[in-house]
Amino acid sequence: MVVLTKGELEQIALPAVQRASPPPPAAVPEVDLAAGDAAAAARAVAKACEDHGFFKVTGHGVPPHLLARLEAAAAAFFALPQREKDRAAGCPFGYASKRIGANGDLGWVEYLLLAVTAAGAAAAPGSACEGAEPSCFRAVLDEYVAAVRRMTCTVLQLMAQGLGLDDRDVFSRLVLDRDSDSMLRVNHYPPAAETRRLTGFGEHTDPQIISVLRSNDASGLEITLRDGTWVSVPSDTESFFVNVGDALQVLTNGRFRSVRHRVMVSSARPRVSVIFFGGPPPRERLAPLPGLVDREGGRRRYREFTWREYKNSAYRTKLADNRLCSFETMATS
Ligand SMILES: O=C(O)CCC(=O)C(=O)O
Ligand SMILES: [Fe+2]
């Protein structure tokens, strides 16, 4: 367990300051899960995953009062005295401030990372953060995870349908597996005294199959388009944002794009975001789905590997690194 004292925290160098103005706003594709036309939603989801690896979900059925309670509980947790938050510190799970991962990446952010078990959000067994957060926070986290995982599985089924796969559960099954390596991260970007933009969370792709994000009304999330240009994502407290992760890029033989994104802090208001990362079980063998490889004339872009293998290799990388290159075949070019 790494617990930083207040003195140590102050000594950590701040991330690089970027140019003053945010990039232009993104035209984020939107999918309404309540529109009643599953085939149209499936087509829209697949197109968004191919074009951007990113889209917004409305009509999701997660009650607004649950979102408001979660936001309030997160704000209360991060408002605790530093000493108390440090009691929940741990690696990789638990509370951390400024340090992202184990390889020197820094951001203007503090966060709580929790492993998600079949029973709901929970700290990794034996971690120091078990029981450290207020019990009201624990209850709302568990309720939130149950609701967001249900919605995530609906989205994953639409992805399979949009790809024309016979097995609609091919992705959702991995997230519902009792050994699924899923996580919940609650990020808090404190208001910065700095008038220019600070790196809150440096650029990266998410490793898992899918990430489902909800934030308060402070913007800051930015994504790249296929040509590499950055665009900013206007905040929307009533919707969820979905990212395709590395594992889904592999399963779809590169057809769905694992979107590169980052958070830049420029607001006087704190940003609070909560992200559910749906991952496969560690033993799961990941490889492009045969049906999708056939459609590309047998061209297979990634070799087979287990999720455990990917994680062991990713553990040694920096946040911005492309973690899929060591699994690419010669056929990617
Ligand atoms: O906090 C955010 O809005 C996004 C953070 C993020 O990309 C992550 O936690 O993987
Ligand atoms: Fe991310």
UniProtKB/TrEMBL annotation:
It comes from the Eukaryota. The keyword Oxidoreductase applies. The keyword Transcription regulation does not apply. Its cofactor is L-ascorbate. Residues 179-280 form the Fe2OG dioxygenase domain. InterPro entries: DIOX_N, IPNS-like_FE2OG_OXY, IPNS-like_sf, Iron_ascorbate_oxido_reductase, Oxoglu/Fe-dep_dioxygenase_dom. GO terms for molecular function: gibberellin 2-beta-dioxygenase activity; metal ion binding. SUPFAM superfamilies: Clavaminate synthase-like. Keywords: Dioxygenase, Iron, Metal-binding, Oxidoreductase. One of its GO terms (biological process) is response to light stimulus. Belongs to the iron/ascorbate-dependent oxidoreductase family. This is Gibberellin 2-beta-dioxygenase. It comes from Zea mays. The lineage of its organism: Eukaryota, Viridiplantae, Streptophyta, Embryophyta, Tracheophyta. The gene is LOC100280480.
